Amino acid sequence: MKNAVIAQSGGPTAVINNSIRGAIDGLKAAKKIDKIYGARMGILGVLKEELLDISAQDPKQIALLEKTPSAGTIGSCRYKIRSDEDLNRIIEVFDKHNVGYFFYCGGGDSMDTANKVGELARRNNLEIVCTGIPKTIDNDVGGPLQSNGTFAICDHNPGYGSTARNTAINILEADEENKASYTSDPVLVIGVMGRKIGFIPAAARLADPERKMPLLIILPEVFPKNDYAGNLEFITEAVNEKLSSHHRCIVVISEGAGIGDLGILRDSFGNEQFSASERTVEQVLVDYLNGNDRKDSKGRAQSRLKVRGIARSERPGTRQRREIAYVSEIDRKESYEVGAYAVRKALSGKNGFMSAIVRIPGDTYRVTYDKVLLEEVANSKREFPGEWIASNKVDVTDNFVNWAMPLIGGDLPQFTGFKEITAPKICGKYTPTAYK
Q: Among 28, 35, 207, 426, who pairs with 3 as Cys (CB 3.0-4.6 Å)?
């Protein structure tokens, strides 16, 4: 019997290990595989011949993958295959270890790697089935929005639902804090992940589908990087409109929004690494709102806010993609199923495919699983639908909410909401001294 290698690539998710568990369970149940190996640190583990024997692990440890976040168990990487030397080394390692099945869990770049390995194996007449297992918090792997309200190729990616839930809960909590402190810091700017695609910042709207919060959502698609000054001015006007009506404002901004040169670094695939940039969008926006760029002769900032107080910033960072406490149960279940489905297709002889989640159109949320060619999703970059961007440019439409709400896996927390029942005023009007 042949052996199998499982590897992970790219940024982790809260449910990535459950896809690996689905694949492991499927391989064990089929009884067609001798050894199951986990490549340490993704494709680098294959190149370095660092293969963890998963078959020898305690079944309890395998079961714990369901609720173990991130990708630390077998590791991940951002290594791009650029040479025939690397490809030939991969084939050599697979051949020497009698590997007949390779499963690569990752995004579009990972599917490109799996596709390259599969093509080289075929050219060398080696029987190696290469299969992709999707994951990405950005939800950028797959095709465009279709007329039936679902996405082509792959409706959504495992990992996104949990990050969307994490984002929505963070906004609910941030709203409570903003209500408590707006007399001193009326504006809270929260920078979220997502690079150049707006699915993660858009998830903030799931916290407030009825639009009762003073919430602005800044998508990277709306504010391109050819007019930093104009973009900052537009956002400031939108913030001040909220301040006029609510006296406070929460701004959720994508890390890739075009409001300034951030001094970013890039990984080997050319992807921006915003978490390692010199500056962040939330800090750039806060500095602008607070007027730090136009201090007076005494060094005091000249705020652009139309109310007293300052804008503050928050950056949840990589915790958005790893926190098991906020996992979506739908996301957890689907991540397992795509791993299991990938194994079923691979063991049936289907080569060069990625497993995919396909949504069944209709009012009730239902999905099925299918396979798509690796070459179709290799290096794919889905776009956030333009028709889901609100006309005011700082929000998303109900169609996005209807599409995304099932993915976060159940109700969000409910917080106290006192009615505005107050004691009658019987004293004269008074202005606090500092406000005079």
A: 35
